[in-house]
Fold:
Amino acid sequence: MTNLVLLKPQNKGENEERLTHVLERAIGRIPHEVISTADEFERADLKGKRLIFAVSLGASGINIEHYEILKKIRLDANCFDGSVGGAIVDGGSEFHTKGAARELVLSANMSGCTFVGKSLVEGTGTLKNFNTIAKNLSSDNLGAYAASAESLVKRVAEFEQTANSEQRILMIHAGKSESSNTIMLWDMVKKHLGNAKVSEVSLLEGEIKDCKGCPYTMCRHFGEQQSCFYGGVITERVYPEILACDALVVVSPNYNDAAPAYITAMINRLTSLSIVNQLEGKRLYAVVVSGYSGGDLVAMQLIGALNMNKPFILPPKFAFFETANDAGEIKKIPGIEKVAEGFARGFVCSN
Structure:
């Protein structure tokens, strides 16, 4: 039985010629199993596999069979235990590809699938999103699309997570410890991390400026000095801690269905660091507390920014979600300490 599985939900009535071409180059003659319907998915054993999710959306952004499979993924919290994946999403317009991908990756991850860094290859309707890559490869945009998919398949097939008995964990937050339910929840997790070396950085320690979109040459120039034009706590504390850590934990409340502005600015400012430094191999975790609902939207924001656009690995069940509003309410949730301990065990198992 082959270890590589292509999950390519059929999309009746849509032209899938471009995605087929890309997959033929990406997978080539590598032996693999193909799953194209929800019934086939239900019969398959997908634990411990190497998975390529390839979804054709068409112009509408909707693939009915894909949603049938997604439904089954969400109803089985362990269907991908031990598996490693990447996603290729092909669309007929300039919209929907990234949104569909983030939704898929979060669902599969919460069902046990690890995702490699830069886990998404997306083809928008015009393929304009490959303009820069095509130029760098001296190729046309379709060729750049196929080459990117080929690289993703190779990284999924060859993925190995190195063990580290004394892992270094960096927690970043932008909350007030005395009143933040999110930090209280992190504290419950932290006390179960054993021998891990934990560093914590508060983004409230100094003024933070958001990325202003400097020219690439300028961004690279500062990146070579492990710095950024705008300086501050980002370059003084965050950059060196990111370079030193094995795992990054973003501890984030849900503000209007998004991470707080300081955390978003920090993520944007990581560009200069990632241009010249190898961030591959570092894992991403999240602790997210919502006052009402929408924690999954914050998680998808982090997936898009740090796992799809940046090379952070997404370990299985990377995010810990809870709902709490009034200060200290998180401590009153029945069994919360036990759940926090279980989440902490995931750090050890993901080495």
Observations:
- Strands lie at 4-7, 33-35, 50-58, 84-91, 114-123, 168-173, 197-202, 247-253, 283-290, 319-323.
